[in-house]
Amino acid sequence: MVKERGRKVIAQNRKARHDWAVLDTYETGIVLTGTEVKSLRQGKAQLVDGFATVDDGEVWLRNVHIPEYTEGTWTNHEPRRSRKLLLHKHEIIRLIGKIKESGLSLIPMTLYFSDGKAKVELALARGKKAHDKRQDLAKRDADREMQKAIGRARKGMR
């Protein structure tokens, strides 16, 4: 039996970096049923509206869509069910403190397989205001123009 190595990305939340200022990230395990794993191996999942909450000392991933497995039977899973995330107790306690004190949120950034195990990259993030988003876009455009100018100067163009 050949064991998988490396990291195979299933889904990414690309819009998250636009809408949220990421302060810290955590790699977490995720509790899944058999048909969810099979559906993920087909590369199907959506993290767009997902978020995580801490309830009774446990972290739960909510509103993440993993479609039903096409070959599944009556044992198929519910696509948007809450899924438990696996973190160490001291990490959960630290997260509870940060979320309560400063109004931060937990946002799933990436869903992937690492050495055959499903993992979620969870970000501790603060929501951006509209003017922050505009500043980020303006900075990105300015950086792009600067890189173009440097590239032209290297080639001897003006």
TrEMBL record:
One of its GO terms (biological process) is trans-translation-dependent protein tagging. The keyword RNA-binding applies. It is found in: Cytoplasm. Keywords: Cytoplasm, RNA-binding. SUPFAM superfamilies: Small protein B (SmpB). GO terms for cellular component: cytosol. Residues 133-147 have a biased composition (Basic and acidic residues). PROSITE patterns: SSRP. Residues 131-158 are annotated as: Disordered. GO terms for molecular function: RNA binding. InterPro entries: SmpB, SsrA-bd_prot, SsrA-bd_prot_CS. Required for rescue of stalled ribosomes mediated by trans-translation. Binds to transfer-messenger RNA (tmRNA), required for stable association of tmRNA with ribosomes. tmRNA and SmpB together mimic tRNA shape, replacing the anticodon stem-loop with SmpB. tmRNA is encoded by the ssrA gene; the 2 termini fold to resemble tRNA(Ala) and it encodes a 'tag peptide', a short internal open reading frame. During trans-translation Ala-aminoacylated tmRNA acts like a tRNA, entering the A-site of stalled ribosomes, displacing the stalled mRNA. Belongs to the SmpB family. This is SsrA-binding protein. The gene is smpB.
